[in-house]
From TrEMBL, chain A:
Annotated organism of origin: Salvia splendens
Family affiliation: Belongs to the LOB domain-containing protein family.
Chain ranges passing through the membrane: none
Coiled-coil regions, chain positions: 89-116
Keywords: Coiled coil
Lineage, highest ranks first: Eukaryota, Viridiplantae, Streptophyta, Embryophyta, Tracheophyta
Protein name per Swiss-Prot or TrEMBL: LOB domain-containing protein
Protein biosynthesis recorded as keyword: no
Length: 176, 151
């Protein structure tokens, strides 16, 4: 009974593009019909043919992650047409710098206390002294580095629009 | 005069976009201010990832003073996507979030340790400073052995 064959609704991509969703459609595993906005954003920013090309260049097990990251970037760009998800990167980078500085300060405190413990074991406690080596001790390498190695992922980038970003006061929530 | 000027400008090298797209670089080309001819790779990656017409539309939708920043961020995203076709610049976001988690943990530990050491420091300085009522030296801090100090 041919009519008993299951009906597959068109995927969100084919619905958007108003075309027949054929078996083996490259978009259908990743753009289900119940998430129309996902494809709409991706189509607006990247274009359907660019996405299809990209997916075809990847191995099947990589495509899910690729689509999700494209959808994330596209949504960020729709919300913030100027900076897209670079706004988030700048925000997070600032947090990293701030935390690194706080960590360096906390470690410097620990060194000071550790140094002061030695004179305390003698008869009279001496007033705390600035440990000479504190500034020369490198904890975390400062906040200037732009090269990160985390879990084998090495990312190196310049963020030349930091000053512009500061003056515009943009943020993660994509306010325009 | 205008014609010769425009011809002069037309004779000047087309922008990187128009060169790649093999078209005439018009005077009001939207790409020309941001994709100079001497940086062909910049437009190449943007074109590959976003497509020229999408970039054109995006730039047209923005006021002029925002276009340079927009192009910079698009170039960054495109380069990240070319380097990492699976995660693009979302990989950088994920990496930064991991770094933040690690730093927060380290900071909490260091701060807890500092509080602990501060308390030790103050309690030991208080013991050194308090006078002994029996006139005995008290630099031995073992209460169990205090008997030996009291006779």
């Amino acid at each position: 009974m041919a009519s008993s064959s299951s009906y597959n609704p068109p995927c969100a991509a084919c619905k958007f593009l108003r075309r027949k969703c054929i078996p083996g459609c490259v978009f259908s595993p990743y753009f289900p019909p119940e998430e129309p906005q996902k494809f709409a954003n991706v189509h607006k920013i990247f274009g359907a043919s660019n996405v299809a090309k990209l997916l075809n260049e990847l191995l099947p097990h990589q495509r899910d992650d690729a689509v999700n990251s494209l959808a994330y970037e596209a949504e960020a760009r729709v919300r913030d047409p100027v900076y897209g998800c670079i706004g988030a990167i700048t925000f997070l980078q600032r947090q990293v710098d701030r935390l690194q500085k706080e960590l360096d300060a906390a470690n410097a405190d620990l060194i000071r206390f550790a140094c002061n413990d030695v004179p305390l074991q003698a008869a009279q406690p001496r007033p705390p002294q600035e440990a000479a080596g504190v500034r020369n001790v490198g904890f975390g390498g400062g906040g200037g580095g732009r090269l990160y190695q985390t879990g084998g992922v090495q990312i190196s980038y310049d963020v030349p629009w930091n000053d512009i970003y500061n003056s515009h006061g943009g943020g993660m929530d994509g306010n325009n | 005069m205008k014609d010769s000027n425009s011809r002069k400008q037309g004779a000047a090298s087309p922008c990187a976009a128009c060169k790649l797209l093999r078209r005439r670089c018009a005077e009001d080309c939207v790409f020309a201010p941001y994709f100079p001819a001497e940086e062909p790779h910049k437009f190449a990656s943007v074109h590959k990832v976003f497509g020229a017409s999408n970039v054109n539309k995006m730039l047209q939708d923005l006021p002029e003073h925002q276009r340079e920043d927009a192009v910079s961020s698009l170039v960054y995203e495109a380069n990240a996507r070319v380097r990492d076709p699976v995660y693009g610049c979302v990989g950088a976001i994920s990496s930064l979030q991991q770094q933040i988690d690690a730093l927060q943990t380290q900071l909490a530990l260091a701060q807890a340790e500092a509080v602990h050491m501060r308390m030790r420091h103050y309690s030991s300085s208080a013991e050194c400073a308090s006078p002994s009522t029996r006139g005995r030296r008290s630099h031995n801090h073992h209460p169990k052995s205090s008997e030996s100090f009291w006779h």
